[in-house]
Each structure stands twice: as structure tokens, then as C-alpha cells.
């Protein structure tokens, strides 16, 4: 099974690009319950202090965004969803990139996690700094027998 098939089998819905809950600036938005994740077939790298996206060569993906609906925040939904995503990735030998930037979707909503909080969260899920300033973090492919 590939990653989209695993996501669908686990109850995730792949939102069409025009869907009101889809992130308009990425290819794939996945939703289950109060969690939405955007995943792209790209890698990230830092050049002259700026984060750039690059076309992936296969086996590399970028976790572009994770968003939890306001009433469900602080209850562990994001970490649970990410743990599941990376279990799928490990079973398939996929590598993930992330730029740990706070994202606030709605005005008047709660304050998102800080960059440092996001770095700690992603580090707890196996991500390592990919550059000296930790602008990009990489979760190496893991082979699970």
C-alpha cells in the first residue's frame, strides 16, 4: 500500500483542492476529525539563509502544515495524527521534511505553538535539524522489518 492508500484506510479524507477545508496553496490536504495535514512531494533546503522547496526524487515528502480546529487544540490530536503518519512513513521507508513555523489560520483564534515548541514537538517525533539555524528539520527514512 502507498501512503495515500494507507491514509484512506485509516479514515483520513483527501480533500479536493477547492474544498472549503483544503489548504489552497498545497497539493494534498488530509482531514480526519479536527485535524488537517498538508503533505507535498517536495523537499526543503536552506540556501543563503532562506528556505527553498525542491522537487523530491522519490521517497521524500514535506509536512507542509498541521492544523487542529480551535476547540480541539491542546488535547494531543496533532501528535497522535503525526505519530500515525510517521508509522506509515517508517513502514514505507519515507523521509519527511518540515519547516517548524507557527501557522494561524483564523483571525481571533488561539496563538499557535511557537517555533521552539514546534521544534521540540518534531524532535520528539524523530526530526533532526537539517541546517545550523534549524529552519528545516528532516526525519530520516527508517526501515521497519
UniProtKB/TrEMBL annotation:
Pfam families in the cross-refs: Acetyltransf_1 (PF00583)
Taxonomic lineage from the root: Bacteria, Pseudomonadati, Pseudomonadota, Betaproteobacteria, Rhodocyclales
Gene3D superfamilies registered for this protein in UniProt: 3.40.630.30
Domain N-acetyltransferase: start-end pairs: 1-142
UniProt keywords, alphabetically: Plasmid
InterPro entries xref list: Acyl_CoA_acyltransferase, GNAT_dom
Organism: Azonexus hydrophilus
Lineage top rank: taxon: Bacteria
Record protein name field: GNAT family N-acetyltransferase
Amino acid at each position: 500500500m502507498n501512503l495515500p492508500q494507507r491514509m484512506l484506510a485509516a479514515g483520513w479524507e483527501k480533500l479536493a483542492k477547492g474544498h472549503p477545508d483544503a489548504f489552497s496553496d498545497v497539493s494534498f490536504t488530509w482531514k480526519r476529525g479536527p485535524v488537517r495535514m498538508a503533505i507535498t512531494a517536495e523537499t526543503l533546503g536552506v540556501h543563503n539563509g532562506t528556505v527553498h522547496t525542491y522537487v523530491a526524487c522519490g521517497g521524500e515528502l514535506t509536512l507542509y502544515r498541521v492544523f487542529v480546529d480551535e476547540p480541539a487544540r491542546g488535547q494531543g490530536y496533532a501528535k497522535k495524527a503525526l505519530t500515525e503518519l510517521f508509522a506509515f512513513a517508517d513502514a514505507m521507508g519515507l523521509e519527511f521534511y518540515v519547516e517548524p513555523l507557527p501557522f494561524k489560520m483564523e483571525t481571533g483564534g488561539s496563538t499557535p505553538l511557537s517555533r521552539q515548541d514546534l521544534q521540540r514537538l518534531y524532535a520528539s517525533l524523530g526530526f533532526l535539524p537539517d541546517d545550523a539555524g534549524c529552519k528545516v528539520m528532516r526525519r530520516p527514512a527508517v526501515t521497519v522489518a
